[in-house]
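Re: that backbone. C-alpha cells:
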C-alpha cells in the first residue's frame, strides 16, 4: 500500500521569491519520471470501466513528476509559478460517487493536480473555479484502489491554500504558513499548534530554585519537546518549526538550498517505518522536490541519488507538440572531488 508520509513547506526569500519543497514517500516503487507538459496539450480523464472522462486542453505549460507512466503529475509547477502536490490523506478523503457527477467535468483523484496546473495562474483563480470542480471516487489503474489525496497549492505571490475532499465536496483553507503533511484534516492541524505555543528557537532561560541555578544542556533547549516521530501531526509541527524559524535568505537560489536542507530532516530511510511487518511494504522517501516559483525552476533528487537536479521551465518550447519526459535515473557513484594540481 502507499505510504502515509509526505511533507510540504513554503518559504519566502527576502526579495519576495516563494520557494516550495515537498517529499514523497511510498511503500512501492512509483517508477517516477519528470515531465514537461506544453500548452495546448489535450487531456482525457478517466471514468468507470475505462470510459473516456473529462476532456480539457492545457492553457499553461507545467513541469512535474509523473508515476507509472501515467500522463498526470503528483507534484509540479506551471509557467506562471503556480505549484502544488497530491499528498496522501487516508481515512478522511471522501469523494463524490461517479454516478452523481457530470462525466464531462468529473476528475479522478490522480488527475486533479494536472487540471489545476494546466488551467490556472494563481491561487485566487483556483479558489474561484472549485465550486464547479468535482473529484470522483475512482480506483487508480496503477494500484487498483482509490487514492486518498489532499492538495497544497501555492503561487508566485506566496499565496497558499489547502484543498481537501470531505463528504464529496472540496473544502478550501487559506494556509498562510505554507505547511502541510497528511491526515487528519488541515483544521485539526491548526488546532494542534496550540499545544506547542511555547516552542522557540531561542534557548530557555536558566531555572533558579532555592538559590541554585540550573542551566539547560547545550543549545536548542527552547525546542525541547518538539515531536520527532514520523507521524503526520508530528511532522506538521516540526515542519512549521523549521519554516517559522529558518533565517530568511536574500533570494530564490539561496532559499532553494535552505528548503533542501529543511526537507532533508523529513527523509524516511528504508526500514525506519516497517509496514512490512503487518503485510505492507517498507515505505521510504523516494524523492524530494523544490521549486523556485518566480524563476520557474524545478528541482528534484532521489533516495539513491541525492544530487539536486534542475529543470528550467523557461528553457523549453512551451508550445511544443508533445510531452518531454526525463526518466528519473540514478547514479549510485558519487562524483569525485576535483583537487587542484600540485
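Recovered sequence:
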Amino acid at each position: 500500500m502507499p505510504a502515509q508520509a509526505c511533507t510540504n513547506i513554503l518559504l519566502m526569500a527576502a526579495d519576495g521569491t516563494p520557494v516550495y519543497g515537498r517529499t514523497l514517500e511510498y511503500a512501492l516503487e512509483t517508477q517516477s519520471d519528470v515531465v514537461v507538459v506544453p500548452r495546448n496539450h489535450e487531456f482525457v480523464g478517466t471514468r468507470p470501466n475505462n470510459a473516456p472522462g473529462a476532456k480539457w486542453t492545457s492553457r499553461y505549460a507545467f513541469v512535474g513528476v509523473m508515476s507509472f507512466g501515467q500522463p498526470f503529475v503528483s507534484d509540479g509547477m506551471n509557467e506562471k509559478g503556480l505549484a502544488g502536490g497530491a499528498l496522501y490523506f487516508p481515512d478522511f478523503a471522501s469523494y463524490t460517487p461517479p454516478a452523481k457527477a457530470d462525466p464531462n467535468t468529473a476528475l479522478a483523484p490522480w488527475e486533479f493536480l494536472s487540471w489545476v496546473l494546466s488551467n490556472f495562474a494563481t491561487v485566487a483563480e483556483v479558489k474561484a473555479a472549485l465550486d464547479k470542480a468535482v473529484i470522483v471516487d475512482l480506483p487508480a489503474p496503477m494500484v487498483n484502489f482509490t487514492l486518498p489525496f489532499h492538495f497544497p497549492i501555492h503561487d508566485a505571490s506566496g499565496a497558499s491554500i489547502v484543498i481537501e475532499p470531505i463528504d464529496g465536496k472540496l473544502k478550501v483553507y487559506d494556509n498562510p504558513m505554507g505547511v502541510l503533511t497528511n491526515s487528519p484534516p488541515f483544521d485539526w492541524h491548526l488546532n494542534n499548534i496550540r499545544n506547542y505555543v511555547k516552542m522557540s528557537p531561542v534557548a530557555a532561560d536558566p531555572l533558579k530554585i532555592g538559590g541554585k541555578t540550573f542551566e539547560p544542556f547545550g543549545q536548542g533547549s527552547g525546542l525541547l519537546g518538539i515531536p520527532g516521530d514520523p507521524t503526520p501531526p508530528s511532522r506538521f509541527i516540526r515542519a512549521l518549526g523549521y519554516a517559522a524559524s529558518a533565517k530568511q535568505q536574500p533570494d530564490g537560489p539561496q532559499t532553494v538550498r535552505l528548503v533542501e536542507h529543511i526537507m532533508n530532516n523529513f527523509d524516511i530511510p528504508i526500514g525506519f517505518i516497517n509496514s512490512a511487518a503487518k503485510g505492507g511494504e517498507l515505505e521510504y522517501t523516494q524523492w524530494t522536490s523544490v521549486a523556485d516559483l518566480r524563476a520557474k525552476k524545478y528541482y528534484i533528487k532521489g533516495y539513491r541519488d541525492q544530487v539536486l537536479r534542475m529543470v528550467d521551465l523557461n528553457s523549453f518550447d512551451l508550445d511544443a507538440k508533445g510531452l518531454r519526459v526525463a526518466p528519473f535515473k540514478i547514479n549510485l557513484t558519487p562524483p569525485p572531488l576535483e583537487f587542484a594540481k600540485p
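The chain has a mean pLDDT of 93. The two ends are 55 Å apart (CA to CA).
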